[in-house]
Design brief:
Elements: H1 3-36, H2 40-47, H3 56-71, H4 73-78, H5 82-86, H6 101-117, H7 119-130, H8 136-139, H9 142-173, H10 186-203, H11 206-215, H12 221-226, H13 228-239, H14 245-269, H15 275-284
Helix pairs in contact: 1-6, 1-7, 2-6, 6-10, 7-9, 9-10, 11-14, 13-14
Length: 285
């Protein structure tokens, strides 16, 4: 009878600690949402910029066509490649069909932006929650953990917005033809973009997660290197939740790339086996 409170109390303490951390995180996100509210219009303009059809891809194509025109003028004239460079950016706009739809879209943009602004606090609270399971030396790594985790998430989000998002929209717009024109719904467009922003941010957090698991002794370099094929399969399964092949590929490739980075990160910075354990394992062999 006396042992039961001793087993229940730590669990209740963990729940209370988790609730405390979640309350702080939610409060930080709400404050971040307030700061991001006035920026939501600029963010929406940036996200919809690829709809004009003028992106870094069109700049690369223009330079390539100009180089072909300089070296092979006959081919340039025969294929009328100059038409691509003469076309002006098209005017395309998002459309909404429900009352208050733009308002709710603005709320979604503000929430995600507020979450990103609050990332240092989010990761700090996460660190405080797992800190009891770390050694005293590892607890001192709070500043590198918060800094690297925040930067990794932001780099993943920016990588998607600057590199991947224009590719997806350009590919979609390439199907426009006579009698077939794009008519993007505002909610569908923004929901798709925000979901992928969060996904790419989390994908770039994979090396940090693997390093933490390695420090806890849950995974090792040998384990990660031995299971590369399963990681590739898991990356394909995660990417398969998206309907189109282009989005599947642009998710699968970075996800598996982050797994490879995780392997080498764990090799360099992961927890090393004590010498006694290594000698013992050598004797048993």
């Amino acid at each position: 009878m006396t042992e039961e409170p001793q087993t229940v109390q730590p669990f209740l303490e963990h729940l209370a600690e988790l609730r405390k951390r979640l309350i702080i995180i939610i409060t930080a996100v709400i404050i971040g949402m307030g700061f991001a509210w006035n920026l939501s219009g600029s963010i929406l303009s940036f996200v919809t910029k690829p709809l004009t059809g003028h992106t870094y891809l069109t700049d690369i194509k223009k330079r390539a066509y100009e180089e072909i025109g300089r070296r092979y003028p006959a081919v340039y004239r025969q294929l009328d490649l100059g038409k691509e460079t003469r076309e002006a950016p098209k005017e395309r706009m998002l459309n909404y069909s429900a009352p208050l739809e733009p308002f709710f879209v603005q709320c979604k943009i503000s929430i995600i932006s507020g979450f990103i602004l609050a990332l240092p606090i989010v990761f700090y609270q996460l660190w405080l929650f797992i800190a009891p399971g770390l050694t005293r030396k590892e607890r001192r790594m709070v500043v590198p953990f918060v800094s690297v985790s925040t930067v990794s998430f932001c780099v993943g989000a920016l990588f998607f917005l600057v590199i991947i998002w224009p590719v997806i929209i350009n590919f979609s717009l390439s199907y426009e033809a006579e009698g077939l024109r794009s008519w993007f719904n505002m909610s569908a467009y923004i929901n798709f973009c925000l979901r992928l922003i969060l996904m790419f941010g989390l994908i770039f957090e994979l090396p940090i997660l693997m390093l933490l698991l390695s420090r806890f002794g849950i995974v090792t370099y040998a384990f990660l290197a031995r299971n590369r094929r399963y990681a590739l399969l898991a990356s394909s399964i995660v990417a398969a939740f998206h309907a189109d092949l282009i989005t599947m590929f642009v998710i699968m490739a970075p996800l598996y790339m982050m797994y490879e980075i995780s392997i080498w990160l764990v090799l360099v910075f992961g927890r090393k086996k004590p010498a006694a354990v290594q000698e013992g394992s050598g004797e048993t062999e």
